[in-house]
Amino acid sequence: METIKYTIKFFSEWHAGSGLTSGSDLDALVIKDKKGLPYIPGRTLKGLIKEAAIEIETLVKNEDNFIKTVFGFSSKKPNDKTEENDPEEFGVTEKGECFFSNAKLSDKLYTASVEKELAPFYYRSISSTAINGQSGVAEKHSLRRMQTTIPCVLEAEISNVNEEYKDQIEACFKWIKRLGQNRNRGLGRCQFEMINGKEDTK
Predict the structure, then answer these.
(1) What residue ranges do the domains of the chain occupy?
(2) Separation of alpha carbons 163 and 98, rounded Å
(3) What is the pLDDT, as a whole number, of residue 92?
(4) pLDDT tens-digit profile of 38-49?
């Protein structure tokens, strides 16, 4: 098994939501770690890469076990040991073999950012409002302010990867062009890039 290390390079501001607000100031805050620095949860990355894998599979009609093995799967059918009318035991869920780490700043940049208290400088805010299509006037109470993270480079890894799936994971990286919320409004333009051929973890 191998560990794939990769970078996420952002070319525009991006928003990985925390689900929190800051009262009357900002309607949507980005997710931050305990030091106030940006990161992307591994579960978010897993979902994004899986989405790319499904789209690619639809196009090339690949029928191997790549998606099920790497990401896991959930079946809506009752398993052999379960009564069909038992809603609590309905279905079978299998975890994927691979582990997706959080994406974060490089160790060197992270340490420097903490020591020099740079966390606040990683964030900006943008405003948007809904415009009435007939009058051309802004809708009442539609003004929203969203926190964004400045363009930067994050590092992450996928561990316990079977060597035969490495090329397919790299293809998923190349497929992804945007990440986070408001991707259709110019946020989250990015590039995923593998930074090592492979690393033996045995």
Answers:
(1) 2-71+97-194
(2) 12
(3) 56
(4) 999 999 999 999
Query: What are the structure tokens assigned to 197, written together?
Result: 């051929």
CATH 3.30.70 is held by the domain 2-71+97-194: yes
pLDDT tens digit sequence for 82-107: 554 444 455 556 788 999 999 999 99
Model confidence over 36-79: pLDDT tens digits? 999 999 999 999 999 999 999 888 877 678 999 999 877 665 55
Single pTM value for the model: 0.78
